[in-house]
Design a protein that fits this description.
about 325 residues, two-stranded antiparallel ribbon, mainly alpha, Cyclin A, domain 1, 15 helices
Length: about 325
């Protein structure tokens, strides 16, 4: 007697369901045609994992092990690419993730894949956007419930890439990355830090999160921040966000010291990173103001301008924090 065949394949397409009808009996009436709908459930962070200190310890260990995977590839590996090209491409990746309403982790994972690949393989200039498309494609598959399709990615590139190229390069990128798609990112650490954060009642947790994520996103698109550890960037951005929104430098300094203890990094290292990122954010905001004035309707960098507009900025008195941290 032969055993029954069991289908172990898992479909990645949305689940087709019949929508509810006011008349329940209509669902069972074959004369009435009801079109299928889809249900999409957004992924949620596991609170049990966020509250387990062992998870954060493992993330810090993984961060150290992964540090050697990303090198200063413009000076050591790439012969045709320049840092300003990475800025253009990563900004495009951000716009794609935003337009498709991807989870925040998708963008950071895609950047991680991009930097790891470029640290190992020399590519031509005309392959840069294709590589970026594949990295977004893989990150979306890994982190999103309903991933972005290769067809949509082709449209985002104005059809400069084809579906066949994306799928061919998908295997190439996976092989170079040794199929290691799980990576600790700035977003990973922000989730842990924000979860254990005791905020002043005057602060809105969502506003703190938005500002910290905005600064972290800007840092991710800049090549000069390439070698910074994700934990350091997350701690610096969160400290700057809390300080700027509350304007209470003493509490910001206390938070910075607390985060430095959690990730076992010196407060001065976090503070230096904070000053660097904040200085770049201010410069970027000034540039965006000029663009906004010259272009009344522009979608470019909307993820930045949405968080940094309408006087909702986070100016941090970095020197005052520095004095308090050193005390």
């Amino acid at each position: 007697m032969t055993s029954p065949t069991i289908n172990l394949l898992c479909s990645e397409s949305p689940l087709d369901l019949l929508p509810l009808s006011p008349a329940t009996s209509d669902l069972f009436n074959p004369a009435i045609h009801v079109g299928p709908t889809t249900i999409e459930v957004k992924p949620m962070v596991d609170q049990i994992l966020l509250n387990d200190h062992r998870v954060l310890n493992n993330m810090l260990k993984d961060e150290i092990m992964a540090e050697c995977e990303i090198t200063d590839y413009f000076n050591k590996v790439q012969t045709q690419l320049k840092p300003h090209m990475r800025k253009i491409v990563t900004d495009w990746m951000l716009e794609v993730c935003e337009d498709h309403q991807c989870q925040p982790e998708v963008f950071y994972l895609a950047i991680n894949y991009l930097d790891r690949f470029l640290s190992k393989v020399n590519i031509n200039k005309n392959q840069f956007q294709l590589l970026a498309s594949v990295c977004v494609f893989l990150a979306s598959k890994f982190s999103d419930v309903i991933p972005i399709s290769s067809e949509n990615l082709c449209r985002y590139t104005d059809n400069s890439t084809s579906v066949e190229e994306i799928r061919e390069w998908e295997l190439t990128v996976l092989n170079v990355l040794n199929w290691e798609l799980s990576a600790v990112t700035t977003q990973s650490f922000l989730e842990h830090f924000i979860n254990g954060l005791s905020l002043d009642k005057s602060l809105n947790p969502q506003s703190v999160r938005r500002h910290a994520e905005t600064m972290a996103t800007i840092a991710a698109t800049e090549y000069k921040f390439l070698k910074l550890k994700p934990s350091i960037v997350a701690a610096a951005c969160l400290s700057a966000a809390c300080s700027g929104l509350s304007n209470q430098q003493e509490k910001a300094a206390s938070l910075l010291r607390s985060l430095s203890d959690r990730i076992e990094a010196s407060p001065q290292t976090i503070l230096t990173t904070l000053i660097q990122i904040e200085g770049h954010v201010k410069m970027f905001s000034q540039q965006e103001d000029k663009i906004t004035q010259s272009q009344s309707s522009s979608s470019v960098h909307s993820v930045y301008t949405n968080s940094l507009s309408c006087g909702d900025q986070t100016p941090t008195d970095s020197m005052q924090i520095a004095q308090m941290v050193s005390c």
